[in-house]
Amino acid sequence: MEYTLPNGQTVKFWDDNKIYLGNQMHKKDSDRSYGIIADEKYLMVSEYSSYGADAEIIVFKQWDKAENK
Length: 69
Fold this sequence. Notes:
Distance between the termini: 31 Å
Strand order of the largest sheet: 3-4-5-6
Number of strands: 6
Mean pLDDT: 89
Structural class: mainly beta
Low-confidence stretches: none
Strand content: 35-45%
C-alpha cells in the first residue's frame, strides 16, 4: 500500500516480501477502515478506503529501543 505524505510525495513503507504483524477493522458507519501494522522496528496505524485507496497515516513510530531491553 502506498501513502501520500503532506508534501504530496507518495511512499511505500513496507516490503511486500516480508511478514508483518497486522490487523484491520472497519470504521462504524463508513466505507473506510483502520489498519495497524508492525515489525521489529516500526508501528503504523493508518486509515484507508476499499483496497487501500486514499491511505492516510495516523501514527508512524519507531519502537523505543530502551523499552525492548
